[in-house]
Structure formats: C-alpha cells, structure tokens
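hey
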C-alpha cells in the first residue's frame, strides 16, 4: 500500500490560489467541486490567515451559487478572462445554456450602464454560434 504524503502548508496555499483563480474566471461549477472535494483541508488549516481567506471565499461562493441558481448556470462565467480564452481556443466549448446565461447577464449589465457597448461575441464564439 502506497504511503500517503503529508500535507504541507504550501499545498493549502496552492489549493486556495487555484480556487481563487476559478472564482476570478467565473467558473463556479468548478469552484463548487473544489470546495466539495478539498475544502475541508482549508477549513482545518493551521494557517489562520489562510483559513480566514477561505471563509471569505466561501461567503462569496455561496452568493455566486445562489446568483447562478436564479439567473442560469454559467451566468457569471467570464469568457473574456485570459485563461478562459486560452481554454476555449484549445478545447473548451461552452454548452448552449452557458452561452444563453452569459448573454442574459451581459444584457442585464448593459441595461444598467447606458452606452457600455459590450458584445456577446466571445460567448457566441465559444459556443460556435455566429
């Protein structure tokens, strides 16, 4: 049987940084998986600052999960984030319900910002829609 490697504080920092990047990208289904699978490590971290940062992330994540429950899965996904752009060029094809949710969210934001001039081109391109 293979011996388990001891978790190091830097492992927790790497995990939290990955979660924060996922939040920044607006990939909340991925963030939920991170939390479900590995959040207990951060909750139990001996680094109180890291544990507090994780707790703040959890508050924001719950708000985002609720927002996407109300406005559609993927509505907070940021197709303009550089890493998402790279993923979409290489392999990621957004499902149509993500594209629709992104477009609704952008339209909602545009209604609040007259003359914003944003487009949904990157979301449509990701879905292969013209």
């Amino acid at each position: 049987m293979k011996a388990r490697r001891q978790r190091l504080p830097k492992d927790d920092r790497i995990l939290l940084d990955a979660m924060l990047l996922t939040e920044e990208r607006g990939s909340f289904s991925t963030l939920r998986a991170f939390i479900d699978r590995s959040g207990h490590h951060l909750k139990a971290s001996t680094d109180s600052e890291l544990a507090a940062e994780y707790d703040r992330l959890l508050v924001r994540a719950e708000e985002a999960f609720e927002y996407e429950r109300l406005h559609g899965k993927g509505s907070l996904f940021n197709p303009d984030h550089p890493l998402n752009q790279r993923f979409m060029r290489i392999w990621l094809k957004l499902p149509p319900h993500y594209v629709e949710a992104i477009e609704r969210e952008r339209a909602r934001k545009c209604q609040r910002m007259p003359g914003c001039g944003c487009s949904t081109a990157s979301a449509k391109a990701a879905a292969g829609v013209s």
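Confidence is low (pLDDT under 50) at residues 119-130. The helical segments are 9-25, 28-43, 48-71, 82-90, 96-112, 121-127.
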